[in-house]
Amino acid sequence: MKPDAKPQFTKAVFERPRSLVDVKTHFCPGCHHGTIHRIVAECIDRYGVRENTVGVACVGCSVFLYDYIDVDVVEAPHGRAPAVATGVKRAQPDRFVFTYQGDGDLAAIGTSEVVHAANRGENLTVIFVNNTTYGMTGGQMAPTTMLGQKTSTSPYGRDFRGDGYPIKMAELLAGLEGTAYSARVAVSTPAQIRKARESVRKAFEMQLNGMGFSIVEFLSTCPTNWGMKPLDAQKRVLGEMSEYFPLGVFKERKQADFA
Amino acid sequence: MNGTATGEALRLLTKGNEAICLGAIAAGCRHYYGYPITPQNDIPEYMAARLPAIGGTFLQAESEVATINFLLGTAASGKRVMTSSSGPGISLMQEGLSYMAGSELPAVIVNISRSGPGLGGIAPSQGDYFQAVKGGGHGGYRLIVLAPHSVQEMYSLTMLAFDLADKYRNPVFLLGDAIIGQMKEPFVPTPYDASFPQEKPWALTGCRGRERQNLKSLYLKDNAIEVHNWKLHGKYEAMRQTEARAESYLLSGAKIAVVAFGTAARVSKTAIQWARKEGIPAGMLRPITLFPFPEREVQEIARTADRLLVVEMNTGQMVEDVKICTPHHDKIGFFGKPCAMPTPEEILDRIRALAGRKG
Questions:
Q1: Does A7 map to a domain?
Q2: For B53-60, what is the mean pLDDT?
Q3: In DSSP terms, which residues pair with B258 in a beta bridge?
Q4: Is the dihedral of CA A145, A238, A190, A247 positive or negative?
Q5: Is B169 left (phi over 0), alpha (psi -120 to 50) or beta?
């Protein structure tokens, strides 16, 4: 028996997705980007679109998407990923196109681009990672920062009287006619991870069936910038974050609105 | 459409803005994105009507910020793509242009410029010279800038712009103005020379049959960004060596040499003809590329002519580049008319004055 051949009496029940590159990530301990990357890679594998995919990376911790997901990736300016993805999809309608964006990127500087991509019903998928802060730049206040949350630019805690309220993007985008699918998920328990995978599958299927714009918002941790241990960060997602940002499906189109 | 029953070349009577559309379509551009702004609306309107009929895509964006990023995505897909706008909209595109230059993505950007700064006005202007030539975005990059002065050139330089963009994997600017965009005159729709190779192995089309690849401008490791900057610099130097273009107009024996581009050059031609009739040996060097600037040609006329007259529809921008080319600053005169077209009479007066004649 050759040393690399699999023994006959075992059955693989868990392996690295083909679309996930076998390297160590740069993400901090307890960060959810790794888990979310894996879910995206699993779904790329499930639908067999790896060689047919163009991903769009945003600015922030997730910019190194091209180091971790084994597909073609173009880098977008901060917040502009849905516009870049629009340009890719309009040029190559038969390719699978997704963006992977953080909350500063999508919900602050890129609000216009994501709202109009959704409103046009652009047939692409947005993976949106909401950890209530700007991770890469060192934990500044984001539009999703919770009321009372202390960050490096809200040192006394976010106050709605000056800073407004945490923005609920999944609900906001669900209100647009062009949105085919909008859901919010979390990955802090195995059950949540299974549900999250189901949502990403749904979002992928929307695009593969030509139904229009799909988005999955992930509630995610940033233990480093929250100043928390990883386990405490999980508790924060399961507690106050899930209370303000409810998990669920906010829009699911059953059929395309064009013949 | 290359001939008539009499064997003469077909001539079309169109606006400059429409000639740009015809040139782009002839060059194989099937993707146009834009946002309304005067005085270039004829371009998106033409493309909106025409592109779907020939299997292309027209898309009106929510802003010029989105527009330039539509271009980035389509350019990354390996397709020829164009937008057009005017000053304020071009300002909003600067972020994307910097990213496209950094990511080495080809596209054609048309500026039918208007008056500024700010909202300015819709009168024709050449006030966007600095922005186009010196780079309005961050980080230090160059764009090839073409300056048409006729409807014919609006057509032919648009075709050239696509070839240069692909050749250098760099955005290329077409800098017109409200006069040249709105002006109607006959032109010959010469066929596009499709011999330029258009294979784009770097394009992101899905990684079937190859390793994954990416297009990016972020370089964090070691001195990678320094290496990248020198690579880009080498490309810009190659542009300087091979792509500078200029028209010599009645320069033989000229003692008064006008230097002007675009509409200012077009008007100057009339003034020069009148001056010649008066016995004043006037001529003109007309930069067709503003970057790369025709430095050698400017050096030469600065040596051979007695006086140079730089004419611009602004308060003096290209004149700085003329001065860089020559130590003979005392020879250089300037006539600027910001936000308005100079008349041939006004230019003739300056030519006469430099020639020591009274009008």
A1: no
A2: 98
A3: B284, B309
A4: negative
A5: left
- Rounded to the nearest angstrom, the minimum Cα separation between B89 and chain A is 16
- Would you state the pLDDT for residue A195? 98
Q: Does A208 fall in a domain?
A: yes
Q: Pick the residue of B33, B47, B212, B215 with the most A CBs within 10 A to test the interface with A by mutation.
A: B212
- Interface contact flag, B66 A86, Cβ < 8 Å: yes
Residue A162 near residue A239 (C-beta atoms within 8 A)? no
pLDDT of residue B2: 47
Average pLDDT over residues A11-39: 95
**CA B358 – CA B351 distance, rounded (Å):** 10
Residue A166 inside a domain? The answer is yes
Grade residue B358 by pLDDT with cuts at 50, 70 and 90: low
Question: Where residue A55 sits, what CATH number does that domain have?
Answer: 3.40.50.970
Are residues A83 and B99, on separate chains, in Cβ contact within 8 Å?
Answer: no
Range of the domain at A216: 33-248
Q: Give yes or no for a cis peptide into B117 (omega within 30° of 0).
A: yes
Cα-trace Rg, chain A: 18
CB distance A185 to A30 below 8 Å: no
Residue of A nearest to B31 (CA): A91
A54 is a domain residue? yes
Residues of A in contact with B81 (CB under 8 A): 87, 91
Q: Do A87 and B75 touch (CB under 8 A)?
A: yes
Tell whether the model's pLDDT for residue A105 goes beyond 50.
yes
Q: Do A54 and B59 count as a contact with CB atoms less than 8 A apart?
A: no
Q: What is the DSSP string of B201-229?
A: TTS-S--TTS---EE-----STTHHHHHH
A87·B71 Cβ contact <8 A: yes
| C-alpha closest to that of B260 among B280, B239, B290, B281 | B290
Nearest CA in chain B to A91: B74
End-to-end distance of chain A based on CA atoms, in angstroms? 57
**Touching check for B214 and chain A: CB below 8 Å?**
yes
CA distance A128 to A220: 10
Interface check B35 vs A, CB under 8 A: no
Question: What domains lie within chain B, and their CATH numbers?
Answer: 12-205+232-241 (3.40.50.970), 247-354 (3.40.50.920)
| pLDDT of res. B1 | 45
Answer for the pair B233, B226: CB distance below 8 angstroms, yes or no: no
Instruction: Give alpha helix (H) positions in chain A.
Output: 33-46, 65-68, 81-91, 103-104, 111-119, 160-163, 169-174, 190-208, 223-226, 230-236, 242-244
Q: Please, are residues A81 and A115 in contact by the beta-carbon 8 Å criterion?
A: no
Contact A72 B214 (CB under 8 A): yes
Contact B205 A95 (CB under 8 A): yes
What is the full DSSP assignment across B84-133? EE-HHHHHHTHHHHHHHHHHT--EEEEEEEEE-STT-EEEE--TTHHIII
* CB atoms near residue B286 (< 10 Å): 24
User: A87: which 2 tokens?
Assistant: 């340009």
Average of per-residue pLDDT values in chain A: 95
Query: What is the domain count for chain A?
Result: 1
Q: Which residues of B touch A75 (CB under 8 A)?
A: 99, 103, 214-218
Give the one of A51, A77, A85 whose C-beta lies nearest to B206's C-beta: A51
A88:B81 CB<8 A? no
